[in-house]
Amino acid sequence: MIPKKLLSDLKGYRVIGNHSAVKLCLWLKKSLRDRGVCYKQKFYGINSHRCLQMTPALLCNQSCIYCWRPLDLLPEIKKWDSAEFVAEESIKAQRVLLSGFGGLNDVNWRKLEEAKNPNQVAISLIGEPTLYPYLDELVEIYNSKGMTTFVVTNGTNPDMVEKIEPYQLYISLTAFSEESHITINRPTKNFWDNILKSLKVMANKDCRTVIRLTLIKGINMLPEKFVELIDVASPDFIEAKAYMHLGYSRMRLNRTAMPEHEEVRKFAEELEKLTDYSIKDESKISRVVLLAK
């Protein structure tokens, strides 16, 4: 069901069934060789080498200007795989992708063995996960296996945002108004009201919550514009993170649109003055600053 052109673009991905995929994270690979860890390990305590990065939906309802993924060719799904199938096959796919590390001389063998039994799932690889109709069941299955789950959504499907109970819920924001939503996110239809509903839902979730602000220089680095949205969602954490000039986004944005870490830090400092959040940590290599209440 997945077009051949898209499959050729998904280098390094292990496609599962009709619409899901797994890919080893760069930081997992680095951690296996003791060359560094993801900022999520630094900020939230998860182990990079035991993190399963996956998507249950190789499709999206937006074509964001900053997205580095090959989204233009994502297909319409005619048959959805069960949550049980996606969960089991994603773990198997992770083990297959890890098999090549056994031939490396500098791999940490303890970490490699632990990596074969992931205890953290990042549901954020490509596409919009809330478009998968059984996402709540999928999260529940991972939870039942003793795995923590991070779900990253664009907030366009508030009904699913309300149903899921991950360990940590992200809503990714780049737009701060209806107009900027249309310009930056280029949705298939106007989802701004849905995003506002998802932010309200987030305020009442029992899980840990995060607003991720993807910052594009010259387009949305206006901290005062996000204050009202942050007040609505009342997240536990805010990540101010630089847009990265990678992949397909290079066809739409110049490299000058990627802010330096110092510019991200300045944005976070301004946001700190405007809200009841304070800077708690940062990762210069990932160009991200963490704020928390």
Instruction: Provide the low-confidence segments as ranges.
Output: none
> Can you give the mean pLDDT?
93
The SSE order reads HEEHHEHHEHEHEHHEHEHEE
Briefly note the CATH topology name: TIM Barrel
Outline type: globular
The largest beta-sheet arranges its strands as 1-2-3-4-5-6-7-8-10-9
For the record, the CATH class is: Alpha Beta
Per CATH, the superfamily is Aldolase class I
- In total, the number of strands is 10
Radius of gyration: 18 Å
Helical stretch tally: 11
The CATH architecture designation is: Alpha-Beta Barrel
Number of domains: 1
From the helix content, strand content and strand pairing, which structural class follows?
alpha/beta
The rounded distance between the terminal residues' Cα atoms is 45 Å
In short:
35% of the residues lie in helices and 18% in strands. By secondary structure, the chain is an alpha/beta fold.
Task: Indicate the topology.
Blueprint: H1 4-9, E1 13-16, E2 20-23, H2 26-32, H3 39-44, E3 51-55, H4 83-98, H5 109-115, E4 120-123, H6 135-144, E5 148-153, H7 158-163, E6 168-173, H8 178-185, H9 192-202, E7 208-215, H10 223-233, E8 237-242, H11 261-274, E9 278-283, E10 288-292
Parallel strand pairs: 3-4, 4-5, 5-6, 6-7, 7-8
Antiparallel strand pairs: 1-2, 2-3, 8-10, 9-10
